[in-house]
């Protein structure tokens, strides 16, 4: 039952992925900007049809003195032929033209002429950068932990011919390949590796997806993992593990610092050994530091002050 629910979720997700790859503003990313449209090209085709239709009716009116049913049929046919022979391909598009069912050329952008009936373009390929949202739900890691990961894929079509001829629906193919690659990448890593090595996961996904899609004329620009959700029952354990690791590192750093200090003190003791003048200077330095930090007055007992004066044995001598 759980597997059936997961499969239904994957089908719904794939539909959403396809819409995202085609420029959908779902998933809360509506920027308020309008998407580009082909209204101008559609209007151009309608105008061509109207001109062809009107030209035939005008000729029929002048030549025959009236417009009959045959003239209307011919006008519609001529208008359709004109509209299907001259096309507008937008700046970011490429038109894949077939002649009698076989690939002939890639045309555009701008005005594209085709032979009526024997030539037609089956697909207009958008060559701008596209985005596809994809993810993997409850995917098991190598240590059998189910996690949810979602990411965004940035891609573009660099070969309109391959995208049209090699694959039926390249936009849907991109979504499925990306999702499959993510599931495989997660299955090869532990939950800790997935959570802490996000950049490495990005690079691995990019290479795996590009290897699959490059033969279809699709270039992968970047893959960005958006979110990694670990089960709640494991979040506390991983948090405690991270805290323990930080404490361990802090203690190691403190131990190394204490070792360095002890080595320096040992070297200093060798320099002070048998050197009374050096000990007096050190005593004065410690007294100065205590006064400087406290900002108060240093009261020196008489026994302590003897360290700042001459050695009594030297006076007797």
TrEMBL record:
Residues 240-267 form a coiled coil. InterPro entries: Band-7_stomatin-like (IPR043202), Band_7 (IPR001107), Band_7/SPFH_dom_sf (IPR036013), Stomatin_HflK_fam (IPR001972). The keyword Manganese does not apply. Pfam families: Band_7. The keyword Cell membrane does not apply. One of its GO terms (cellular component) is plasma membrane. It comes from the Bacteria. The chain crosses the membrane at residues 41-63, 69-90. Residues 84-242 form the Band domain. Belongs to the band 7/mec-2 family. PANTHER family: AT06885P-RELATED, BAND 7 PROTEIN-RELATED. This is Band 7 domain-containing protein. It comes from Eggerthella sinensis.
